[in-house]
Design brief:
The protein has about 130 residues and is α+β, with helices and mostly antiparallel strands. The protein has helices at about 1-15, 70-80, 115-125, and strands at about 15-30, 35-45, 45-55, 95-100, 110-115. Helices cover about 30% and strands about 40% of the residues. It has a 5-stranded mixed sheet, sandwiched between helices.
Length: about 130
């Protein structure tokens, strides 16, 4: 299973040019919540927050993701608020990306959501 997963993820992994953080705890100083981001990377030469998911079903559309974009918006809010994260310029953050690996087929679905959509559509749902 591991080999199949690595092979499936290879197309996205080869597009990552720099890793800023992996499995990093983030904290929102005003709303007092914390979480752990999967990774903050340069993907296709743009700073992106990636959330890796594994499921038993394909997630071909953003609608299929249910609350996952809301979770990504919450991570984004914490990243903006957390002053301990110093290895990057927050203004350069362009996308949140949800990568869903479907176990049975080994297929991946990649959903790239721009920061404005995360802020205007999903952040209010988180609040």
């Amino acid at each position: 299973i591991f080999d199949k997963k690595v092979k499936s993820l290879h197309p996205i992994l080869k597009e990552i040019s720099q890793v800023i953080y992996t499995e990093e705890d983030v904290f929102h100083a005003n709303l007092f919540y914390k979480g752990r981001i999967d990774c903050l990377v340069y993907y296709q030469n743009e700073l992106c927050l990636i959330d890796w998911k594994t499921s038993s079903k394909r997630k071909k559309t953003v609608k299929d993701l249910y609350e996952i974009p809301v979770q990504l918006a919450a991570y984004l809010g914490a990243i903006y608020s957390d002053s301990t994260l110093t290895n990057f310029d927050r203004k350069q953050l362009k996308y949140g990306i949800i990568v869903n690996y479907e176990k049975a087929s080994g297929e991946i679905d990649i959903h790239k959501i721009d920061i404005e959509t995360l802020e205007k559509t999903y952040w209010p749902k988180w609040l």
